[in-house]
Amino acid sequence: xxxxxxxxxxxxxxxxxxxxxxxxxxxxxxxxxxxxxxxxxxxxxxxxxxxxxxxxxxxxxxxxxxxxxxxxxxxxxxxxxxxxxxxxxxxxxxxxxxxxxxxxxxxxxxxxxxxxxxxxxxxxxxxxxxxxxxxxxxxxxxxxxxxxxxxxxxxxxxxxxxxxxxxxxxxxxxxxxxxxxxxxxxxxxxxxxxxxxxxxxxxxxxxxxxxxxxxxxxxxxxxxxxxxxxxxxxxxxxxxxxxxxxxxxxxxxxxxxxxxxxxxxxxxxxxxxxxxxxxxxxxxxxxxxxxxxxxxxxxxxxxxxxxxxxxxxxxxxxxxxxxxxxxxxxxxxxxxxxxxxxxxxxxxxxxxxxxxxxxxxxxxxxxx
Length: 368
Description:
By secondary structure, the protein is of the alpha/beta class. The chain contains 14 helices and 18 strands. Strand 10, helix 8 and strand 11 (207-211) form a beta-alpha-beta unit. The chain is globular, with a radius of gyration of 19 Å. It starts with a strand and ends with a strand. The mean pLDDT is 96.
């Protein structure tokens, strides 16, 4: 008999659904992997740069509008959706205060300018430290979701044996941010380095981080050996010591800081004339990949202790941090190989990560 265990429905607390025809397809894949809801990134086109649809703030999509679109696309399945406000040069403390007062604004997203897909609308971190936006967020209890990489670096500093963009951010920017706003709720998104892990562990209880399946499974060697461009994402996968630190943090028996956020990012054209689109697509297969990663980290998922630490990471820590409803529905993960299929949207195709890496998925969600 195959190994199996039961989990409550879970929230993917860092994902990308995009817009237009892509939105219902990617939301559908999240419904299929038993998500009760999600925190949906705001780097759409145009970006989610205002809170209310009626606000006249440049040519932005609103939190109000995008959240309603996602809930509708889930056909009533999602219990809650958090759409962070994209922090742009147009963001003001007044927008934060009014959004939080309406209970519509739960989080904001910081992108390093030009640091990843759709990040050209961002501004330097110091801009928001100085213009009152972070102070307003701290006072209103709004969470700051951080793409924690330094921008504008020379290539030899961006990714090198001695340092990289994430390490510089967590060594230089994050300490000043926490010291300046000691009660600001922070989430280090898609953590990739031991430096980042160590900072989060030493930070106050309201500073947490999420980790993707690809950063728990792979290193930069997997990316470069044969140029596996479906593994190309930002921040980049790092080195074995970094992966070991991520695994230890996610699988610790006393973990209260690190939770699941897939950073699943659909691209119908992964390679383009401008280069390689950043992002791994893990819709429909994320719990299976996380189970694979936990086993690779030495967790015995046949034991109650192993299942408990896995459920804590996937289903509990992030949900409690964002005060999301506890799902009553459950699903079963089963240790059986699963054939991964591409996601077809009209005449365009999105390739899930296992298919792009030409690897077998050892776990599946048991059919009902």
